[in-house]
TrEMBL record:
Superkingdom per UniProt: Bacteria
Protein name according to UniProt: Fatty acid metabolism regulator protein
PROSITE patterns xrefs: HTH_TETR_1, HTH_TETR_2
One Pfam family recorded for the sequence: TetR_N
Organism the protein comes from: Sulfoacidibacillus ferrooxidans
Encoding gene per record: fadR_1
Amino acid sequence: MNSSKTRMIFEAAIDIFCERGFEKATMDDIATKANVAKGTIYYHFKSKEELFVFLVEEGTNLLREHVLERLSDQMTPTDKIRAIIHEQLTFFKDYRDLCIIILREAWGEEQRQLQFRRMLVHYVRAIEEIVISGIQTGEFAEIDSQTAAWSIFGGLSITALNHLYADPSFNLPMLAPSFEQMLFHGLTGRHEPIDE
């Protein structure tokens, strides 16, 4: 974000979109919350949709930076996936309202869905590369790496969203051990394939 006014608009938009949803939020509401003239918002954003897309894009960039910068080349693929689980849950806890907006609103109309998936692709691709690395080293089973990456992101996201709605004060990183257990050992806890 390149200015303090943009930051104020961004933070006000998070509050208003989270509280009222995309459809009921107005630029007037956001301007009042940000303590700026409505014209100031329109100077930076042509429409409510453009502001919303900016908010989602900034949010996904924050997520990517927050999680991936915690990874190091010294970590094994398993360690990296564990770190992703913990850091994504931590991000959702620290940016609760932003995450609710992204996960609740971004799956609305078709155009918004496409934009959202494009924004997330770099983050999910980074997870996929770790899965591929784990397959190559023999740490992970031969699985579809893209499905695994989206499942990790999606499973964490929906689980977090459920808890954020049920109890906003819930400490999301506490879910990490259960999620790791299910991811690395499955529901059965067996290490051999399940007969079909």
